[in-house]
Specification:
Blueprint lengths: L34 H7 L9 H21 L1 H10 L5 H7 L5 H7 L3 E7 L6 E5 L6 E6 L5 E7 L5 E5 L5 E12 L5
Antiparallel strand pairs: 1-6, 2-5, 2-6, 3-4, 3-6
Helix pairs in contact: 1-4, 2-3, 2-4, 3-5
Length: about 180
């Protein structure tokens, strides 16, 4: 989320993706799939794989989000931002739409790494669960440093990404979530 180049997904891997079962051929061993379940499974079930196993993965994603949001909503959003909760967007869209607000907020956040150009959105951000080695740097045109900071406390930290920022680098901060009007 938030980087210039999209992250490589399974279809971008060096090994070719397995052919998928056409939607009209997806059937469970027993019973039936609901419409949302079938929509989730569309273009996700490799030939030779039990569609129920693929569905189980999506349901586990929803279960994990439900657990995380009960413990700490910010941590749930951060887990989506970082990809720790993989494939949250399709699982939420079809299997647990009550968590759509988490996915929407995560789309505006930044994981640790380098973010440049159009991927940068001015505004206020917070890292709700940084490590004690959290550090960040914002640079403008020609690499001019606009702001930098670190935290060795492990407590939440905040920063403002100015409109003039060209690069945002973060390490050890885990994820940056939008605050206030940035949302």
């Amino acid at each position: 989320a938030g980087e210039d180049a999209p992250e490589a997904g399974p279809e971008d891997a060096e090994t070719p993706a397995l052919p998928k079962v056409p939607a009209d051929e997806i059937t469970p061993a027993t019973g039936t799939f609901s419409k949302p379940q079938k929509e989730y499974l569309t273009d996700r079930v490799p030939r030779g794989m039990d569609p129920a196993a693929v569905l189980q993965t999506g349901q586990e994603t929803c279960d994990r989000l439900r657990y995380l949001v009960k413990a700490d909503r910010d941590i749930a959003v951060a887990a989506i931002v970082t990809g720790e909760v993989a494939d949250a967007e399709p699982a939420v869209a079809h299997l647990c739409p009550r968590h759509q607000d988490l996915v929407d907020e995560a789309a505006l956040g930044y994981p640790d790494g380098t973010h440049t150009g159009a991927a940068l959105r001015p505004g206020r951000y917070r890292a709700p669960s940084p490590t004690k080695d959290c550090a960040w740097r914002l640079t403008g045109a020609k690499g001019k440093e606009l702001a930098a900071g670190s935290s060795d406390t492990g407590r939440p930290v905040s920063l403002t990404v100015p409109a003039s920022a060209a690069t945002f680098i973060s390490t050890g901060c885990y994820a940056w979530l939008p605050e206030g009007a940035t949302r």
